[in-house]
Design goal:
Layout lengths: L17 H32 L15 H52 L1 H13 L6 H103 L1
Keywords: Coiled coil
Protein name: Coiled-coil domain-containing protein 42-like
InterPro entries: CFAP_domain-containing, DUF4200
């Protein structure tokens, strides 16, 4: 029977507190220890069941030759099956030994990591003793995990807000560029209208001057006409 070791999911230790990683490593070490014990039991069982094949009989009486011939055929088939079974068991035993070797290396590796992170466990115990807020180490770890999760959420929110600000900044830049084009267009149009207004004002002043001259001329002619009329009346009255 082959024993398949389930691989652990991708590591997320970079976002966990050191104490949390220590506890996880301890659990992994315990799981590997159990798997190694199970492998050793399987290897031991294979070793016990790998009995040597029975030796063939030394001689066969001639009177039982035909019967023994049939029996030898069955024995041969059984021997072949047993040899195949033994070969499979040997192959399985080799695989199990390789798995046991790999598990042993993994256990040593995890034990080293546990020993490396043991300092965090001791530090955590000191924190619990000195703290009035926490009574157990798991409370501190739970608090740290909550803070780490909150930090991740805040970083995600900040990233989203930065992306939103960048989008708004891009839109504002585009809007300003479009408005600058419109403003330039309106400024050109306004300058053109100012030129037209200046020309109209110049023409207006010219026509006002002409109109004043016409009015003065008309007034002088009206006065002259009045004088002529008075003189004509006086002359008529004198001649009469």
């Amino acid at each position: 029977v082959l024993l398949f070791i389930r691989k652990a999911p991708p590591s997320t230790d970079y976002v966990l507190a050191p104490t949390t990683r220590l506890i996880r490593k301890r659990r992994e070490e315990l799981d590997i220890h159990k798997a190694m014990e199970a492998l050793q039991e399987v290897i031991h069982a294979h070793t016990l069941t790998s009995d040597p094949l029975p030796a063939p009989p030394v001689s066969i009486p001639s009177c039982l030759f035909q019967e023994n011939k049939l029996k030898n055929g069955r024995v041969l088939k059984i021997a072949v099956k047993e040899r195949e079974l033994a070969r499979q068991k040997a192959a399985n035993l080799l695989i199990l030994k390789q798995e046991l070797k790999a598990l042993t290396k993994e256990r040593v590796k995890i034990a080293a990591l546990v020993e490396k992170h043991e300092i965090y466990s001791r530090f955590l115990d000191k924190v619990v003793k000195a703290s009035k807020q926490f009574q157990e180490a798991w409370q501190v770890m739970s608090r740290v995990d909550t803070l780490v999760q909150t930090r991740e959420e805040l970083l995600t929110s900040i990233k989203q807000n930065q992306e939103c600000c960048e989008t708004s900044r891009t839109q504002l830049t585009q809007y300003l560029e479009q408005n600058e084009d419109r403003l330039l267009h309106y400024n050109n149009r306004l300058a053109k209208l100012h030129r037209i207004l200046d020309r109209v004002r110049s023409e207006t002043m010219l026509w006002e001057s002409r109109w004043a001259h016409i009015q003065n001329t008309a007034t002088m002619k009206t006065m002259l006409l009045g004088t002529i009329k008075m003189a004509t009346v006086n002359l008529y009255q004198t001649t009469s």
